[in-house]
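The passage that follows is intended for readers who have already worked through the single-chain material. We present the inputs for a multi-component assembly, then the predicted structure in tokenized form, and finally a short commentary. You are encouraged to pause after the input and sketch how you expect the pieces to fit together before reading on.
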Amino acid sequence: MAWTWFHRLGSPPYIYALAARLTPWFAWPAAVLTIVGLYAGLVLAPPDYQQGDGYRIIYVHVPSAWMSLMVYTTMAVSAAIGLIWRIKVAHAVAASCAAMGATFTFAALVTGSLWGAPMWGTYWEWDPRLVSELILLFLFLGYMGLRSAIDDVQRADRISAVLAIVGVINVPIIHFSVEWWNSLHQTSSVFRRAGPAMPMSMLLPLLTMFVAFTLMFAALLLTRLRAEVLSRERSASWIREVVSA
Amino acid sequence: MSVSEFFAMGGYARYVWPSYALVLAAIVLNIVWARRALKRARLEARRRVAMKDAT
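Having made your guess, compare it with the prediction:
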């Protein structure tokens, strides 16, 4: 009885309809919060006493990096669920994540580079945090390449799932790299045991961007999932109802 | 704060604005991609249904 919701989540027509209904509830708050967060970060937040206005890159860099880790973790967990319980929808979720993950990992790397140039004096350094994030980009690209190289969807699901699961080891490495190794990159200033190391006026725009990016990820994922579910179901009768509507 | 001061970003304009532009581009690109994927999947599904009806 308690598991009926779980079984329903594995049903493609139910997921398709649910995703369609939920998307605007994530998309619109994400759009509003992104605008609010960007305005607050660029205008309302005070300049940093050391980095002046240069630190404002944080409001796009950190949310992008957070997005890259969130997308990868979602991809790996749903790939594992798909592999272990043989749930097709879970594989579809994993497949929907990759391109999003790759773009935001790339954005995190380049904005970090643009931040490093004036503050560290270099665009790139072979530093643990930077290298592990670069590996994350290669994991996303590798996952996409692997999928596109295999014609049979179910085989692609299984093989790419193994890659996604093995690669998840990189997620804690990225997060803790700044503590485990002597890194040029600063340690976390938000998610730390002693609480955020920022004044509220700087922290609030960042938290707004966090929420905005999380909601945006949900909206994008739901849209891509619908496309994925639709293209995977070859002959199901529910598709007839969906496309004729 | 004047408008030109705002755009100057305290001398960091050449680092701040490309960063914001890139992330905004990533957002827009992902929205376009996701919508296009859904549109394409719907068109393809419609074609499959039509083909099945024809046979």
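Commentary: The longest helix of chain A spans residues 12-44. The radius of gyration of chain A is 20 Å. How closely did your sketch match?
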